[in-house]
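Handout, section B. The chain below has 134 residues.
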Amino acid sequence: MSQSPADPPLRPLLVVDGANVVGSVPDGWWRDRRGAAERLRDRLAQTGGPADGPFPGPYEIVLVVEGRARGVVSVPGVRVEEAPGSGDDLIAELARGASGRPCLVVTADRELRRRVEEAGARCTGPRSIPAAPH
């Protein structure tokens, strides 16, 4: 299905490597991985993703969780995808499936960055996710 000139442009896809972003801050996340992923999800829902990313928002946000962070539910503004195996594999699959629309992946994982960039996505690090507004 192709877009006509009158159609609004597709929102950029923001794929967040939940384990990598949560693990980038030593705040005790390892004691409650699911709770840490829920806090990240809520922060993404509040902030809408990077304010200074390479694509103008708003984004379609997908948070990828794995392992003990499974069970986090989606909320308005953030779809949560549970990786059946490797979170990296699911993130790479989502980047490949972006179907030509802009895709930004949030991770510091060098190998994952290489994989998603080969699929045409751009990358940014965990620090690009703003703190939740108070």
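Note. The two ends are 42 Å apart (CA to CA). Compare this with the example in section A.
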